[in-house]
Amino acid sequence: MATFSAPLAVTTFLATLVLTNVGYGSDKPPAIEFLSPREGATVNGKISIEARVSNPSVVDSVEFYIQEPGAKDRYAWREYGPPPYVWGGKGYKLDTRLFPDGPASVVLYCYTGGSKPATEKRVHFTIDNGKPVVRIIAPADRTSVDGAFPVKVELTAPKGKGNQGGVVAVSVLVDGTLVQKITKPPFETTVNTCLMAPGLHSIRVVAENGEGLTGSDSVLINRKAGTGLRRSK
Fold it and tell me: 97: number of CA atoms within 13 Å, CB side?
């Protein structure tokens, strides 16, 4: 009996060890926890996008995707190093002032081998840097115009920025070219179509506050065909 007891004990131990490792490594995918930002948080300025996973020894890599307000997932970043995993690399901070204010999110995909992620998690947060909010109220989108037409905007005040949203200037651009920068309320101007070709043209306004933060809005206008400058006979 004593001759067979030692090998049997070793075999039992090895079997238990194998089952334990299988349970940790492949049967149960790593769980993801976002350290920053937290779910439902409101952020501004420069922030760290950071996450960790359970059982990191089985993780090959992770991949972040940022979804900015009003856009699809983009701005990918892949990390291979040890946790915690940080978008942009260890010590990097993302400047949220480069994005519009509003709801945003980050999704993290965790890979343990193969082309498909073993697990994923998304965290939702809100960017609020107090950017001015501007909306073009005239002309309406895709309005047909001819000659001179007014460009009027509505400014919404972020928290603590006053009735005009702290705006110090409104720039008006036609087809991407600056035509006027207005520095006094009511931030209205007139644009003339005389040098525009018939067809669609973009009107974009950019509002800037005293901190250098901007908000923008744009519409399309339709220059009627058969109008414009005519040669004199």
Answer: 13
